Structures are given as C-alpha cells and as structure tokens.
Amino acid sequence: GAGVSQSPSNKVTEKGKDVELRCDPISGHTALYWYRQSLGQGLEFLIYFQGNSAPDKSGLPSDRFSAERTGGSVSTLTIQRTQQEDSAVYLCASSLLQNTGELFFGEGSRLTVL
Amino acid sequence: SQQGEEDPQALSIQEGENATMNCSYKTSINNLQWYRQNSGRGLVHLILIRSNEREKHSGRLRVTLDTSKKSSSLLITASRAADTASYFCATDPNTGNQFYFGTGTSLTVIP
Question: Which of A18, A77, B13, B107 could hold A67 in an S-S bridge, CB 3.0 to 4.6 Å?
Fold first, then answer.
C-alpha cells in the first residue's frame, strides 16, 4: 500500500482480555514506531524498531505490553490482560531513516477497554 | 519528561487571520518537526527545520527555531476553515531513538 496501514481501526474489549494491534509500514521504511495517544493528549512513545537492531522498548508502560516486528516489516503490538487505563488510540509510524526524516503515521487503532 | 509543550493549548480565530503556535522543548536537538492531526485521524507531517536553521517557509506556513531558547513557532497565514486541526511539534534529540511530541495546540478556524 501507499501508506502506513493499521488494523483494527477500532477495538472494544473486556477488561482482562488480550488484544493484538497490527501495523503494516511503508515498504522500504526501516524505522517503525508505536505511540499511544490518550483522549486530548499528546503522543506517548512506546517502542521503536530499526532494521535488525534490538528494539528500543523504553516506553512500554508495563510488562503487559510487548511488540514484535517480523521480517523487518509488519509489526504487532500485544497488550495482555487489558485494563481500562489502556484505552487510547495506538498510532504506528514508519520512517525511511532513523532520526533524520519525517514520520509517516497510520490512522491509528482506537482501543476501548470496558 | 522530555516532551515539548505547545502554547496555547487551544486557539480560535476567524478565517483569514493568522495563527501562531509556540513549542518549547528541553533537550538539544537535531531537528524539529511540526505535524497536523485532524480529529480522529493520524498525524501528517507539515515541515521540518534543522537545528542550524532559524526560519523556514512552506506555502502558508512559516516556522522559526531558536535553539538558545529551545523554542519554535509555527505561523499559519491567511487561515482557512480547513486548517482546523491539532498541531504538534516533535523534537528529534541528539541522543535516543524516539521523537518527543508536545501536547498539541487545538486550532479552530471559524468561517
């Protein structure tokens, strides 16, 4: 596709359930970021992937959050045992180069935990 | 927190007026970028200014950067109703991998 694709666009789940959010970055982009945006707030960094390097997980808020990037392309963000405070929009972005260019964002996955 | 802060948090102007938003940050940077976010959508890149630049123009956008004050401003001239959105600054620090985003300015342009 031409842009960053995220799925699902909306997810409603019950507290305690696990969820998986998917990001398909722009082809050829080596850098991939996950951010979280709570209602009316700025973006909170979660995790960063760059090529085959070890990911920067410094933004993950708890051990219930994990992410992987297979084959240097598609990434999955997994939230285990979801809590109500996990409700937010999860945004994925990719970039051609690390730290030197613009980020291309997907439309986000809106997660609601009941 | 190393996040930037935008000021004001909200701005409402009449169509045709200019809109100015400010961003302050805390660490030394390689570059600073401005993004726009329409309600319920992802962010869209507007403009990037490098740390050795002081001013940059793109269409109706004018960005300034003062590294001594660790601040930037975004000016939108001759605003249109379609400019209604939230605007975020993002800094790319000299160290670390993440871009730090500010809390955003919500701009409303009244037709």
Answer: A77
